[in-house]
Amino acid sequence: MDPILTAFGLVFDPSVMLVILGAAVFGMFVGAMPGLTATMATALLVPVTFFMDPVPALGAIVTATAMAIFAGDIPAAMLRMPGTPASAAYADESYLMARKGQLDLNLGVNVVFSALGGIVGVFFLVLCAPSLAEMALNFSSFEYFWLACLGLTCAVFIGTGDPLKGFVSLLLGLAIVCIGIDPAAGVPRFTFDNVDLMSGVNFIAVMIGAFAVSELLRGAVDLHRQGHVIVPQVGNVFRGVGGVMRRYWLNFIRGSLMGTLIGALPGAGADIAAWVSYAMAKRFSRTPEKFGTGHVEGVVEAGASNNSAVAGAWIPALVFGIPGDSITAIVIGVLYMKGMNPGPTVFTENPQFIYAVFIIFILANIIMVPLGWAAIKSMKQVLRIPRTILLPLILLFCIVGAFAMTNSNYGIVLMLIFGVLGWFMEENGVPVAPMILGLVLGEMLEQNFMTSMIKSDGLWLAFFERPIAGALGALTLLIWLLMLGRGALTALRRPAQA
Amino acid sequence: MNEVSRRGLMAFGVAAGAAGLLARPALAQSRYPTRPITLLCPWGAGGGTDATARIIGALLEKDLGQPINVVNRTGGNGVVGHSAIATAQPDGYTIGIITVEIAMLHHAGLTNLTYKDYRPLALMNEDPPGVQVSASSPYKDIKELAEAIKAAPAGKMKASGTGQGGIWHLALIGWLQAMGLKPDHVRWVPSNGAAPAMQDLAAGGVDIVTCSVPEARAMLDAGRARSLAIMAPQRNPQFDTVPTLNEKLGISYSTGAWRGIAAPRGLPDEMAKTITAALERAYKAKEFTDFMNARGFGTVWADPDGFATFMGRSDAAMGEAMRAAGLARG
To answer: What is the pTM (predicted TM-score) of this model?
Structure first.
């Protein structure tokens, strides 16, 4: 029988459909709760999928993660708390839109562009997985080093306000990454003989602290002051989305492509994709000054980007068994467990399973729109809960989520420390986002720098010897020079104006 | 103070329980376990150790009639999870999967824990290292590669597979020493595990990867890499075209990454016997063999005494290799 037909038969089985629907609701819930993340959703599904057939097992993971990455946008807009790390890049922007009375438009844009971005990612996964994986495979530590540099450069664009404070935040993040076992020499650093510190600083626990707990603290401080609260508007979330599409279609396309690409690169997932896309949107916008005031442009690009990265990450995972992000790192284990060993043979040995996964991917992105709409509606009801009850409830979920990251109290301690630190930083005008970016990319930067230097026997020029590395390096240096030049120019002009 | 008194209470509880066991042996046998058991895993969800833990957990669950929860305690090159197993209450409700790293971490000065801090229950698995090269590499077999390594100046060739001083690094060192070369004749490029190392091999970043063959499988199947040999006494039936070092080079060097089940040291005898018996039935179960074969993982069995002797040998061998390479500290 034709494998595609078999695949349809496998997917449109009542019990499989039920699993997908259940996983979708589960993903929506986990994503919409600040503190609970998509990675955690996948990890929670592993013991459940252990006893399932391959198609429902993978279907559950695909659906839950796709939903969670979108649903993270909802609390970002309503509470300024990203539901998952992937929404952190534009949580501020979304929240500001909501304060301007554009909550409906923001959520409509998020759900529609998440679904469309997801479909673009699946499109590339289905049509050019082998050739895209081929490209990702050519990246060695030299190329990754430059990519990490480019990623860190985004910190300049995402931090609003004082660039000096942005740098302080970035360097703080890079310093925190040094805690734990040195990735090159295997020597413990700043661990003070503490076993937990040897595992380093778990960045998801940090993000839960820096974004959700700090916001809870802020909410607790002015609990009785009104005006901070967004009055839930009950309107049509899809009104105006068409206009946004006509105006910002280029952002959507660029975001989806960038997301797929970043997802396909081993080690970088939806969260980095969102940040890079948000920075790109601002850099190439005709109205960059509107960013940070509740402007929809960056939300379109980053919202599409993080969902396309979900599918993109499956590309190297399926073709070469190399995880594209923390979710697919778990997925690969499930694939092996189900006898679908990753590799090109997975397309020839069990094609019906792979086609079934693709069909579920498309299906998940389609049902995201009605289910997302339902989730938005019900979250609006949640907002009616008095803040004195809502905030402690969210804290509860944050504690659960942080605990789950390390399966110990260490995660909770990290969350609390960075919650207070994040609150303190924001109150003093130091942006938190660059610190998180430093934390996410710091290890990639250090490890790839060290391994590259070991490989090249200490020769610096090796960073430019390989063609892709050379091009990336030249690009990075050019961007830095331009930025320095512009900075010098404004510094020269300022006294003249004053 | 608090900790001490809590331990004291616990000891009292265990003693009381033991007294109960003595009084009604038949009934007590059917009693343990009476609640869910936690199986700690020092490595992340989705990895090989996690998969092994989960299949063992699933079979134990069927056998013992209580849920077995696999909990991942990761980080610190395995120190975090191994410490959690050693320091858990020895009440029979926390056990763990321990790996070859316990024979290495204390030599590297990362922890004071050794295999002696556990009550061994059973050895379940061992995987030998392989020697993988890129598909575009000029070396067609292990002999050509060995000649090229000997001919190359020290440090010219690069190998990867895991972090600095990790098991596959020690495998490389052992092999080089067996060939009469210095431990750093081939330079080690630390990586975040076998999969990134295999990717770097395909990308042309390193010349050799010494991870196990099942870990290299996706790239081998993709035609991106070739496995030239394994460092084991016999071929692996799952990959029977890959020869041993002994066959091709006359070097009998062999080592391996192993996994076994252990409990905190103070676990009472009766409980240990119950779990070991259940583990033996799990090891003989068709599900276990099928699962391990499907992943290409090797299966070996050793009872508690055999496992303890095995770990002692492993510990000595790892210590020797690490001292030779200057990786031992403290």
So the answer is: 0.84
